[in-house]
Write a structure and sequence with these properties.
By secondary structure, the chain is an alpha/beta fold. The chain folds into two domains: 234 residues, Alpha/Beta hydrolase fold, catalytic domain (Rossmann fold, 3-Layer(aba) Sandwich); 130 residues, no CATH class. The strands form two sheets. An eight-stranded mixed β-sheet has the order 1-2-4-3-5-6-9-10, sandwiched between helices. The protein has a two-stranded antiparallel ribbon with strand order 7-8. Strand 9, helix 10 and strand 10 form a beta-alpha-beta unit. It is globular. The two termini are 27 Å apart. The relative contact order is 0.14.
């Protein structure tokens, strides 16, 4: 299934020439009944992950809904991602499904999709964003953004900026020299823990926020520099961010206790902190402001959920190494009405990988809730 993009992808925004030239979003659909359209469409989304083979599609479809996994224009590469363009991509898919005759559309934000679906529904209800934080990107007040009927955050964190701020390694004292580290802020130094003293942890968290803010200042400076250098023709420039997987919760299980094991989604924490496949290492200055900066990003899920008016279901796994019980509680508490639910999947890992029985449990929980909505 393909859906035309709500607006074309520019060469400066998307690396994939195929994506730019095709001008479509790729989706997969599992139908409850082959050849027929169900009354409800469940759409799962992430800003950049490849969900075309999403693990839950068939399980949801077996329970009577049509399950759609959508991509954004940033499929597989988030280095130049603007969340505001992702909102347009979600709108294109939701509008397409409405035109196909679905009576109910439920938007599921899995993992990094949690903040995106909250942002989408808020803007679909009342659009206020006229550009991305760096002054480029779409004017959402001029876009057609069809609202959905309900939101689900599934093994989701509060937002990409929120998550990265908790993962940034504050021992980095020079962004160009990752080997130069402050031992007093090094969570991997045995003298510091684990377990980590609460006073040390408070200092560590404050230093993480300070580093996120410094990187935001750096992004703003580099955008201004490249605009001046290019006489206004270029509005973005690459950035490299070192050491982005240093959340003390990955080593100290007494912090935000759960059923998780020590480690990260990428393996041992000390290794994951340095390898290039963890979050946020390769970004552009504009993308940093849109998706990774706590100060400027529009993707703060709890903040956006404070203005939602549709039912919300927060589902989390108790053995998740990336999205913790505290994250789920933040999302749940932000919803301002009582048409909300918080569900724990006991023993559930981040993508329920290797847990087919828990995928079935999660499908019962999610689709059962949709049925309760009527």
């Amino acid at each position: 299934m393909t859906v035309p993009m709500g607006t074309g992808a520019k060469a400066s925004e998307v690396y994939s020439g195929v994506a730019r030239m095709a001008g479509v979003l790729w989706c997969t659909r599992a139908r409850a009944v082959p050849g027929k359209t169900a009354s409800t469409a469940v759409v799962v989304v992430h800003p950049s992950s490849n969900f075309l083979g999403h693990y839950a599609l068939d399980a949801w479809a077996r329970r009577g809904v049509d399950a759609i996994a959508m991509t954004t224009r940033y499929l597989g590469n988030d280095s130049a991602l603007l969340l505001e363009n992702c909102v347009l991509d979600v709108a294109a898919v939701v509008g397409h499904l409405r035109n196909e005759g679905y009576q109910q559309v439920v938007l599921v934000g899995n993992s990094g999709g949690g903040g995106l679906v909250a942002l989408y529904q808020e803007q679909a209800t009342r659009a206020t964003i006229t550009a991305s934080p760096g002054g480029i990107g779409p004017d959402l007040t001029q876009a057609v953004l069809p609202p959905v009927d309900a939101l689900v955050t599934l093994m989701a964190h509060p937002g990409r900026a929120n998550l990265l701020a908790e993962m940034l390694d504050p021992a980095i004292v020079d962004e160009s020299t990752p080997a130069l580290r402050d031992p007093a802020l090094d969570m991997f130094a045995k003298d510091n823990g684990p377990p980590y003293d609460p006073a040390w942890l408070a200092q560590y968290r404050a230093a993480q926020l300070a580093r996120n803010d410094r990187l935001t200042n750096l992004a703003l400076e580099r955008i201004e520099q490249v605009r001046e250098l290019s006489e206004g023709q270029v509005n973005d420039v690459p950035m490299l961010v070192h050491a982005t997987c240093a959340d003390p919760r990955n080593l100290d299980l007494t912090i935000d206790p759960s059923d998780r094991e020590p480690g990260t989604l990428w393996g041992e924490a000390a290794v994951a902190n340095l390898i290039p496949t963890t979050l946020g290492h390769f970004t552009s200055a504009q993308s940093w402001l849109s998706q990774w900066s706590l100060r400027t990003s529009h993707g703060n899920g709890p903040e956006r959920l404070t203005r939602t008016n549709v039912p919300v279901h927060v589902i989390y796994g108790t053995a998740d190494q990336a999205c913790f019980p505290e994250h789920a509680q933040q999302l749940y508490d932000a919803v301002p009405h009582e048409r909300k639910k918080l569900s724990a999947i006991k023993g559930g890992k981040h993508y329920l990988n290797g847990q087919p029985e828990l995928t079935e449990t999660m499908a019962d929980v999610l689709v059962g809730w949709i049925e309760e909505l009527g």
